[in-house]
Design brief:
Distance between the termini: 37 Å
CATH class of the largest domain: Alpha Beta
CATH superfamily of the largest domain: FAD/NAD(P)-binding domain
Number of strands: 19
CATH architecture of the largest domain: 3-Layer(bba) Sandwich
Order of helices and strands: EHEEHHEEEEHEEEEEHEEEEHHHEEEHHH
Helix content: 25-40%
């Protein structure tokens, strides 16, 4: 199909979708709200289902080179005693489970996309479907007309809110800090999550001799005191935990620590709206407990390209995509 396709959002969902469409001979224009393309977050785990998609899209080996394959995943008590463990190799179904920095993944995807098809600094504000065309306006008062609009703007999508005014973003009850630090002096090899009275703390060795970590703690929504926490406050909070946690925090400068509340999107029942389609976090944002948020967005890209390849009608392809993806993604959101 020779169609004008616009993808709103240049994150993992949008870039992976553009790459998947490229593999079937379809070009898409990516429009990103931020003035500069950059990933949000610190590290990311790509489970076997996501890695299988990236294998089909031809970047599996590049990811392996830059990331770190996960072996055993341990759950530890506060002082470091093992509660349980799982062997990631038994879950990989022939594909590696990988930990990688978001910055590295983002750059690998960007390098696969023709730069002439990327526009930054345009935030969508509304859209209208006119017969077989879609018209979308941006905050700089410009607009674009296309045959199909793929909305990969994330959980706070303006277009989803227009299409589904009653869609609800939910606070999970806990807040989260994330960071990246060098593993040179620490030499931590195990992936772990520690459970204790003052919260959860995860440690994930990733590529380029780095460690990605996260810390979760029950809190009120948008707690301004916790928003201000950096290394000092986190060390105090986790002072009674095992030494690896304290070593990781001591090795992380304040400017490498980011904070946000953990939220998800209450499952919605429609992803396809004529020639407009919601994908990724715009459609099914989930909490990170199952490690499937980005992975489901990556699956979306593959299934969308598959349906566009086998259907002459964009509207039909979008409906078929919805039928294949709705139950799986809703289940994951609810389980997570």
């Amino acid at each position: 199909m020779k169609k004008d396709i616009v993808i709103l959002g240049g994150g993992i969902a949008g870039l992976t979708t553009a790459l998947a469409l490229k593999k079937i001979g379809m070009e898409a224009t990516i429009v990103e709200a931020a003035p500069v393309f950059k990933p949000v977050g610190a590290g990311i785990t790509l489970a076997a289902n996501a890695m299988q998609v990236y294998s089909l899209l031809g970047i599996y080996d590049k990811l392996l080179t830059e990331g770190n394959s996960l072996g055993e995943l341990k759950v530890l008590a506060q002082k470091g005693k093992k509660i349980s463990q799982a062997n990631a190799d038994r879950l990989k179904n022939g594909f590696t489970n990988l930990a990688i920095s978001r910055h590295t993944l983002h750059n690998i995807l960007l390098n696969e996309i023709d730069q002439k098809n990327i526009i930054s600094g345009k935030k969508s504000i509304r859209m209208v479907q006119e017969e077989e065309k879609v018209k979308v306006w941006f905050d700089d008062q410009s607009f674009m007309t296309c045959d199909a609009l793929i909305v990969a703007e994330g959980i706070h999508s303006t277009i989803r809110k227009q299409l589904l005014p009653s869609s609800t973003i939910r606070y999970s009850g806990y807040t989260c800090w994330r960071g990246l630090t060098t593993n040179t002096n620490l030499n931590i090899q195990e992936t772990s999550e520690t459970w204790g009275k003052n919260g959860r703390f995860g440690i994930v060795p990733i590529g380029d001799n780095q460690i990605y970590w996260f810390a979760c703690k029950n809190a009120s929504s948008q707690n301004q005191e916790m928003k201000a926490w950096k290394q000092k406050e986190l060390l105090q909070n986790f002072q009674d935990y095992h030494e690896d946690i304290k070593d990781v925090l001591k090795n992380t400068p304040d400017n490498h620590i980011i904070w946000n509340d953990i939220i998800d999107l209450k499952p919605i029942s429609t992803y396809a709206f004529g020639s407009v389609l919601l994908i990724g976090d715009a459609a099914h944002a989930t909490t990170p407990n199952m490690g499937q948020g980005a992975c489901q967005a990556i699956e979306d890209a593959f299934f969308l390209a598959h349906e566009l390849q086998r259907n002459q009608s964009i509207q039909t392809a979008f409906i078929q995509f919805e039928q294949k993806r709705l139950r799986r993604t809703q289940t994951i959101v609810n389980q997570s």
